[in-house]
Amino acid sequence: MAIEKTYNMIKPDGVKNGHIGEIITRIERVGLTIERMELAMVTPEEAQANYAEHEGKPFYDGLISYITSGPVVKMVVSGENAVATMRKLMGATNCAEAAPGTIRGDFGLTVDENVIHGSDSVESAEREIGVFFGA
Ligand code: DAT
Ligand code: MG
Predict the structure, then answer these.
(1) Is the CB of 97 within 6 Å of ligand 1?
(2) Residue of 11, 19, 87, 117 marked active site
């Protein structure tokens, strides 16, 4: 058991399609705590830093232009096993494969507009929180 922090972000399609409230409800309902939250545009610099591991992949340019295309909701979420718990709530990367009842399964249809971002480890979370909220 471990109290962790994770970085989550409701992506431009989630904001545009009006799912902010429902997603926040799911995070609170499971018992996690939203420590910080801000509606903002992602800058190209932040996008490149967040997705550095995907540079050079065929979907990279589309990913950067999508994530910078409209406002997002940036969040620091904390609680017991927060990283894995948020990944479970999010569902599989491709919305078409994400189970019903998950955020991606319920609010998206494709892999390139998949509603929400979540850190994949405690180490990634620390780095991503630094990118989006500063040290
Ligand atoms: P996750 O967001 O589940 O951690 P990831 O880190 O592998 O997934 O990829 C980051 C984002 O890149 C993902 O949320 C959507 C996009 N992406 C991943 N694979 C893709 C693909 N094959 N085609 C288009 N976009 C993709
Ligand atoms: Mg990832």
Answers:
(1) no
(2) 117
- 117 among known catalytic residues: yes
Pocket of ligand 1 contains residue 112 by CB under 6 Å: yes
pLDDT one-digit tens code per residue, 11-68: 999 999 999 999 999 999 999 999 999 999 999 999 999 999 999 999 999 999 999 9
Q: Which residues contact 73 (CB under 8 A, 6 or more apart)?
A: 9, 10, 14, 15, 20, 37, 38, 39
* Whole-number pLDDT of residue 2: 85
* Residue 78 in tokens: 């904390």
